[in-house]
Amino acid sequence: MLKKILKSYDYTLIVAVILLCTFGLVMIYSASMASAVQRYEVKSDYFYQKQKMWLLIFTLIFLFTAFVPYKIMQFTKWFQVPMVLGSILILLGLIPFGVIVGGAQSWYQFGTLRLQPAELVKLAVIIYLAAVYAKKQAYINQLNKGVLPPLIYLFVICGIIILQPDYGTAFIIAAIAGTITLCSGLNPKSILKLVIIALIVLVPLGLVAKDKILSEKRASRFAVLENPFAEDVVNKEGFQLANSYIAIGSGGVNGLGLGKSVQKLGYLPESHTDFIMAVIAEELGIWGVGFVIILIFYIVLRGIYIGLKCRDPFGSLLAIGISSMIGIQAFVNLAGVSGMIPLTGVTLPYISYGGSSLMVLAAATGILVNVSMFTKFESKYKNKQEHIEKKVKQKDGNVFYI
């Protein structure tokens, strides 16, 4: 049995994750050497060593979630209730006790260790919505009974995150939840009703809070997109994006060579976190960028495929939710670095430096691999059973298996 289970794992997905994490570790070392010495006055391999530690923890979490059956998360109240209440409480705790980073009070700090609880909440939302909608399949198109109640939890979560304020993370969580909801089995008529309800609720709230949402600082982020090199913004809001453009443009097709980035030498802020793709483009050119995008794209597409193949509604929605989380976060990061959308401070999955996002990705990827394994294993078992049943013959009222 164990041998059959091990054969059912999706090793191409596992290899893609290993390649991304290994490549990310190399690029973190390259991108953070100068900033580690100049800004933090530590050894040049400081962030590299810390990321190695996080990757070790990543491996342990990944192995645990890849081997423990994902189905225990669906029907166990001891798991779901603490998860829902805990995610709300840790976000509420940020209001009095959170540390402000990047203009948002969205971090807990324990000595030198920083944790961003919103990353954990992303996975909690996926698990909760997948479990609830899987149970409500019989009446999923009854909006007041099937879809709307779980969205109250989402509304509370996003509301707390917006108060920090962290609009980027709130948008990502809402987009993930929207993807799961749309894939939960709703018919087109129910989807239209849900969109109308969302507009009725969100438009008035947006009008009331428009001064806070479109504050001068946030409005300037949109203005930067038009021309980050303008004299009035190049030394302010446009500084990061302008240097990101310079890095990407300097790399060209083949890049300047691994370790030879100029922009990481104090010009490009957050070169090992939010803007690590700009350093990849500068050093490795289009080949390095293409390598990362293709692997992330493969993981997302593979996750969607797993969701489509899975016959269990809970497993299917889990796979789609996790795939959407990875895909949406990657898009937001890459679009911000390339100036397609305003900067939001979102890291690049598997590549950027950071503990909180990496631990959540470890758990999420492990669950995705677990869903894939059970889907493949049960499919083989069921096909074998169906093959046996076709060979059943009736003779004198007796059943014989041949």
Short structural summary:
The protein has 402 residues and is mainly α.
Structural class: mainly alpha
**Beta-strand proportion:** 5-15%
Query: The biggest beta sheet, please?
Result: 3 strands, antiparallel
How far is it from the N-terminal to the C-terminal residue, by CA?
Answer: 23 Å
Number of strands: 5
Low-confidence stretches: none
What's the overall geometry? globular
Question: What's the number of helices?
Answer: 17
- How are the strands of the largest sheet arranged? 1-2-3
Number of domains: 1
Radius of gyration: 23 Å
Instruction: List the secondary-structure elements in sequence, H or E.
Output: HHHHHHEEEHHHHHHHHHHHEE
**Overall mean pLDDT:** 85
Helix content: 55-70%
Q: What features would you describe in this structure?
A:
It is a single chain. This protein is mainly alpha-helical. The chain has one domain (2-381). It is 69% helix and 5% strand. The chain is built from 17 helices and 5 strands. It has helices at residues 2-7, 11-38, 46-67, 72-75, 77-92, 94-97, 117-135, 143-146, 148-162, 167-182, 188-208, 210-213, 216-226, 239-251, 276-309, 313-337, 355-390; strands spanning 99-101, 104-110, 113-115, 392-395, 398-401. The strands form 2 sheets. The protein has a 3-stranded antiparallel sheet with strand order 1-2-3. The protein has a two-stranded antiparallel sheet with strand order 4-5. Helix 5 (77-92) packs antiparallel against helix 7 (117-135), helix 7 runs antiparallel to helix 16 and helix 16 (313-337) packs antiparallel against helix 17. The longest helix is centred in the last third of the chain and has 36 residues, at 355-390. It is globular and about 60 Å long. The two termini are 23 Å apart.
